[in-house]
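From the shared-data thread, chain only:
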Amino acid sequence: MLAPNPVSLCVSSVASSSSLLVPCSSSAASFSSSAISNETKAKRKSRLTKKAHMDRKASLVRQHEQTKPDAILGYPRSSPSAAETNAWDTSLLKSVLLDRNEIWARTTGGSAQDQQQFLSGLPGSNSSYLPKHYNFGLNADTASLLTETLPAVSSMRSILGSDISNDTIRETRVEIAEKEEMEKRQRLLRIMDLRNAGAKGIEVENTRRIVEAFGRKEGDTGSPEVQAAILTSRIHSLTTHLISQPRDIHNRRPLRSLIHQRAKVLKYLRSVNVLRYEECLAKIGVQSRAVEGEVVVTKQGLRELIRGV
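Structure, as tokens:
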């Protein structure tokens, strides 16, 4: 036979007499939110130690997220550590690259000395003129061959094959030819000056300088170090363009593509040689956390970087 339910007995007693309050007893356990009164000292110490460890772990996670390098720049945008903030400023890649705004500023908004040096290359000017940087991938040796050796040889063509016996006439022709060649030299130097190049010409010169600085041998264009440096240079160039032109939304996807290509190249380099990988990161000014794991460039983060929020 089943035992009577104490809850049903209470309900029946209340129904029989509305003026009489019948206490109800239940065998169910009661729950309390207060601290355990019989907690031992060892358990309390263990509970407080665990809580302190959890708080410390949460603090480290927050600190880790705050110092996380930006996936686009490769280093934190704002960090209390000066070494982390200046990772790009102290890198080899930045010292190698030429800033096109600084190069173009020398022709229009530079100092008086730069203005005078640039104007000295005009035709008819008697002062010597030598560009600081050369266009079309030329170096100082090639420029010297075109501007020093070639004019001297070309000026001698005026008397070659002629039957001039008078030395005075011969010298006069040579002087006229030399004057014409010097005017050609001034025009040629202005053409070879990198200040007259466009953005594409400056990018070609930067690529040549990167290959020379990061290549493992002469003419090395395929090593991971060179590819990572070229991609980082393009990322910074495109980021600067997007900051100056925030409405150019069509170049945001190519920027993401360059970031993932750089991460792919660096991950391959890490699998080949860890020492070369770490040296390459220091040279291009990128922290390891910016390229390891899953590289995510969010739309909100890109917008904040471009608009400076």
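Residues 102-196 form one domain.
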